[in-house]
């Protein structure tokens, strides 16, 4: 019994078989009892009916004669039942047997009293002299109207009924055996269909527990086991994605630390060398302002790097909350163009603006919107000489489409997929004069997505680059002729 409880297959198999066997046995036993009772009741009613027919034939005769004996013999052969006639004293007066060995013998006094009272009697045991075998006997009054001469007894052997009941019981037994075999086969299949996928789920759970998330369970049933398998597969998918994300984040963290170390090491090394030279008076007084200027610029570079890293970390950790309000795009363009105009002029580059009439305001955080534009225009100025930078905006449904296009040296197709990565610097002939932190475009993308927008880039080497991003428009305000009008909704 202990071995059975360790396996779901065995528990289901034996439990199903035991239930089926118990049910069949109970049904067979009840059916046997009910059938036996039905057969005896039917036989009793039939014997009573035959006994009454015999009484109708002999009720006019109070003392049996030869004609009565012939009638009894006739009914014996017709009904296949032995017939006795007894008088009021209980003495057998005539029988349907030719030898008449029972004539003169007595009937049980209890039976006689019932008959004399006009009652019918049923006996299924040998209570008559000369009856040894098991018989079913019925007794009815013999007489006419209220006059009773005695009683009429009909005996029917129960051997035939017993044979019928025995045959029925054998049939029930065979049906039970066949039912048990079918039940065993059905229970085996059902148990196998349940335990097999559970074993597969158990193996997969063990593999997941050891950190292997690559395997999946292929179970296509629509029952609870199929739902469990689907849940296990979903869990494995989530764990696999979580593990991959964890590894990716770890790799990003390592790359981040390596890049930060590299970006800080270069200016710190330069500053250390220059300061040591200045400290040891290895540089004459005329050249000292130049080295002080280099140290100052390197300090500014490190300061920008730290600020960019802090902004990027806050963006990725959702620590920056936007303060949205309607922002005049034309005004913002003019501010950014004025800020980078002198630097662009040094590179013989012009900054132009183009906006359509009735352009709605952008619904954005003004400071973060300005930061996006500064980073994009700053990149455009760095890589454009003797060219043009165009700042444009147009309305598209409920969005504003904003472009920063330049006629600079462009970006190669291979680099276009990588420009959004942190610390990635495109090799576009970048000089130290135009060096940056490599975080500007990563911050731009995070800020655009924080506003619920998208940003794309199109570029061709030697032809220029176009950055295009979309921000929500503030539909309740438009600008015409430099004046703001509130638009009714």
From TrEMBL:
Membrane topology: Multi-pass membrane protein
EC top class named in words: transferase
Transmembrane segments: 12-34, 171-192
Origin superkingdom: Bacteria
Record key words, sorted: ATP-binding, Cell membrane, Kinase, Membrane, Nucleotide-binding, Phosphoprotein, Transferase, Transmembrane, Transmembrane helix, Two-component regulatory system
Reaction equations catalysed: ATP + protein L-histidine = ADP + protein N-phospho-L-histidine
Molecular function GO labels: ATP binding
EC code: 2.7.13.3
Coiled coil: none
Annotated ranges, domain HAMP: 192-244
Protein name: histidine kinase
Gene source species: Paenibacillus oleatilyticus
